[in-house]
Amino acid sequence: MEQKIGKEIQLIRFPQGLPDENIFEIVNVNIPEPKEGEFLVRNIWMSVDPYMRGRMRSPEETKSYIDSFQLKKPLEGSCVGQIVESKNDLFKVGEYILGNYGWREYWISNGGDVMKIDSKIAPIQSFLGVLGMTGLTAYVGIVKIGKLNEGKDTVFISAASGAVGSIACQIAKIKGCHVVGCAGTEGKVDWLLDEIKLDYAFNYKTVGEHNLSSELKKACPEGIDLYFDNVGGKQLEAALDNMKSFGRIVLCGMISQYNLTHPLPGPSNLFLAITNRVRMQGFIVRDHYDMLNEFHSSMYKWISEGKIKWKETVIEGLEKAPKAFIGLFKGENFGKMLIKIGSEI
Questions:
Q1: Of 39, 237, 264, 295, which sits 20 to 30 A from 95 (CA to CA)?
Q2: Number of domains in the chain
């Protein structure tokens, strides 16, 4: 029998600064045969996410909460596929599976590290975004880490049109808070105002980094109770300028710094965290999987009520995944960046 061939994307060297497509290689590999108790999945969708940049560092370069990608091995990331062959009675051909085996066309599992998903609840790619780790990150950050005060807080969210930020904005709005967001294009700002009904939104590029603090003062004249930080840098400084006493800052991501070759000095006004008794806390979503059921229950309800909207940027073809990933750091995505790898059975 002729061996079937699939494709995968490998990292061939660790980047310095902003990655380019030359650090990736598309490789033809033999499609594995499932053994007893296993099943074969063909990927349909995969996710590219900013956190992956942190895994593109040599183990000697930095210590992180997650291991570096291995060179000359397929990269990893969230994916949704469909079972095409099964030798496991609990997993049937045609069922949709959520896993962490992105950047490839085919993969094998015994069911211990995957989750079945129901295409009747929402489009299957939603489980990589609003119903997946992206949505859970927003939920955990706002509800648990940020300890949102329903109906009372003034909330500022950076990268508010992004995959995480846009869901965080909507959770805060659903819970009756005054919500301010920033984004990098006028189209994204319009969406924040017109579609998800933020109370105030602005384009941080046209405002300019030296005017961010005064723009926030205009948006939040009485100060900020909760800042959900996806960016770091000057936006974190501007938020610190405008925090209320006993305010909270949730450190979710710092995309402005992921590709730096040398670390920048910390916020020049960090002392304000002392004078205003601000609590700053970073978090990693994988520490909070105990909230999955609560998150899904809330999100299913809000989606069914039409209270949650989301945007997706879809790129067709596994071979375009490197370019799409790099585009995350250039603001080329609107909402969740997704790669469509193949079709359904």
A1: 295
A2: 2
